[in-house]
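ok trying again, last paste got cut off:
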Amino acid sequence: MLTLRTTLRPALTCCFNETSRPTAIQKGAAPLFSRPPQHRGAMPKRDKTVGGKPKPPESVPSPVTRGKSGTVSIAVHAKPGSKQNAITDVSPEAVGVAIAAPPTDGEANAELVRFLSKVLNVKKSDLCLDKGSRSREKVISMSGSMSPEEVLEKLKNAAT
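nice, full thing came through this time. structure:
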């Protein structure tokens, strides 16, 4: 930092910082080129309203959701290579499904769709592997008239 003395005002120091922006500093006074003070968290945040109505409460996270196109999406954590097909757990993130097929050539994916169609009592053609064909984290989309709550209830019943 360079310091230069000027003769315009007594005890005025003009400094050039690394960005080559001059700032003036006078002892005991505020700098000449200062910014207005910023308030950090002085006021508490209010709940925002839309159209005069309070914001609806956030829903509880669920592995089963309804998409914009009307399909029901199921988040699945697949566990291929098990001894038998079973729903192991239903967590807020995903439904754990043990699959009795090896994870090669899409065999586990086909078995997963077949098993879920049996558990949910829907046709295999109503279920489709939407995401995660080569991953353990998968998303199955289901077309039909079943609500996400009904799907979640059937999955929880099959898990016990």
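cool. The domain at 64-159 is CATH 3.30.1200.10 (Conserved Hypothetical Protein Mth637; Chain: A;). The radius of gyration is 31 Å.
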